[in-house]
């Protein structure tokens, strides 16, 4: 199976795009494994950053992009969830208070240091040091950039992970979604819940009626991305129900059904992990409960023709 992009190509650094006055998206093409988006807000007291990047070099490029726009220090760093593409670079923000949901801190420490082989192609992570949030919250916290209120809200249940938050700026109708939303890439729910993500998107995200969305991966978009992600998740849920009832393993189900109308999304091997989580939902496993992650990742490699998954970070 093809992951949808060429192996071993060099990706340029990301680019800062002003989506509303003083609010910037930092978009890193092509948005595949460990190539995430961040965002930042400019204020008279300093910069608020939402998420870091995966490698030392990518995070330094991000900091350079901020510095080219504002001389102010980054005083606040919000982590939308614990995954390394959003947190490995935390240590390069020495002037910032690092904020995240209560579960982010524990999960950053439990995940540990980055690695490549045998799952991903070799990546130069740089001198990563784990820097979990040291300010945590349970439900919601408001961060101010001058008079602009940023509502940082826990998703309320396992979704992409057990600890997702999104940043809503109601005055500007701007949503910084973290990995609750992917644009052009395959969503990945192995550490969370298919059913939970559908509920969060339908019950929390859609009612916001955001006009501008900065997804965790992919280009800045509008609210149409919510229905696109919901369509993929409901497709996964439907084939999981059929395959589970028919006795197929998640890997065999992925090979039998494929990504269907979503075959053009990057990193199609994530279907295997998503089916494992959908099966867990069907079996009554608590949302977000650990599954055998090393075994599932190995099956994703098998689905990828036995080749390591392409990481261009």
Short description:
The protein has 313 residues and is an alpha/beta fold. Helix content is 29%, strand content 22%.
Topology overview:
Elements: E1 15-20, E2 23-27, E3 38-43, E4 46-50, H1 56-67, E5 74-78, H2 84-87, E6 97-101, H3 102-111, E7 135-137, E8 140-145, E9 148-154, E10 165-169, E11 174-182, H4 194-205, E12 212-217, H5 224-245, H6 250-257, H7 270-282, H8 293-303
Parallel strand pairs: 4-5, 5-6, 6-7, 11-12
Antiparallel strand pairs: 1-2, 2-3, 3-4, 8-9, 9-10, 10-11
Helix pairs in contact: 4-5, 5-7, 6-7, 7-8
CATH fold title: Metallo-beta-lactamase, Chain A
What is the count of helical runs? 8
- Tell me the domain tally: 1
Mean pLDDT across the residues is: 96
Tell me the Rg in angstroms.
18 Å
Q: N- to C-terminal separation?
A: 21 Å
Q: Specify the overall morphology.
A: globular
Multimerization status: single chain
Textual characterization of the structure:
Helices cover 29% and strands 22% of the residues. The chain has a single domain, classed as Metallo-beta-lactamase, Chain A (4-Layer Sandwich). The protein has helices at residues 56-67, 84-87, 102-111, 194-205, 224-245, 250-257, 270-282, 293-303, and strands at residues 15-20, 23-27, 38-43, 46-50, 74-78, 97-101, 135-137, 140-145, 148-154, 165-169, 174-182, 212-217. The mean pLDDT is 96. Helix 5 crosses helix 7 (270-282) and helix 7 (270-282) crosses helix 8 (293-303). It is built from eight helices and twelve strands. The chain is of the alpha/beta class and 313 residues long. The chain has a seven-stranded mixed beta sheet. A five-stranded mixed beta sheet has the order 8-9-10-11-12, with helices on one face.
């Amino acid at each position: 199976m093809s992951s949808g992009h060429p192996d071993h190509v060099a990706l340029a650094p990301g680019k800062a795009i002003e989506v509303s006055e003083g609010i910037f998206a930092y978009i890193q093409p092509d948005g595949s494994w460990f190539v995430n988006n961040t965002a930042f807000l400019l204020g008279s007291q300093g910069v608020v950053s939402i998420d870091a990047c995966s490698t030392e070099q990518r995070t330094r490029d991000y900091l350079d992009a901020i510095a080219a726009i504002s001389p102010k220090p980054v005083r606040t760093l919000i982590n939308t969830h614990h995954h390394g593409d959003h947190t490995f670079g935390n240590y390069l923000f020495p002037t910032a208070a690092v904020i995240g949901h209560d579960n982010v801190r524990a999960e950053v420490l439990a995940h540990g240091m980055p690695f490549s082989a045998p799952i991903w192609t070799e990546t130069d992570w740089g001198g990563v040091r784990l820097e979990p949030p040291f300010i945590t919250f349970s439900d919601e916290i408001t961060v101010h950039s001058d008079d602009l209120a940023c509502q940082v809200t826990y998703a309320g249940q396992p979704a992409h992970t057990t600890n997702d938050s999104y940043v809503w700026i109601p005055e500007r109708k701007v949503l910084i979604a973290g990995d609750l939303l992917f644009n052009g890439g395959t969503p990945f729910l192995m550490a969370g819940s298919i059913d939970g993500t559908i509920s969060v998107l339908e019950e929390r995200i859609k009612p916001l009626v955001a006009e501008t969305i900065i997804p965790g991966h992919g280009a800045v978009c509008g609210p149409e991305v919510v229905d696109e992600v919901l369509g993929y998740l409901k497709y996964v849920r439907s084939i999981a129900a059929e395959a589970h009832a028919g006795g197929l393993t998640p890997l065999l189900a992925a090979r039998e059904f494929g990504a269907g109308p979503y075959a053009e999304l990057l990193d199609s091997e994530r279907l295997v992990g998503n089916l494992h989580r959908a099966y867990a939902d069907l079996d009554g496993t608590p949302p977000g409960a650990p599954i055998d992650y090393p075994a599932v990742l190995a099956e994703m490699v098998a689905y990828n023709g036995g080749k390591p998954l392409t990481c261009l970070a």
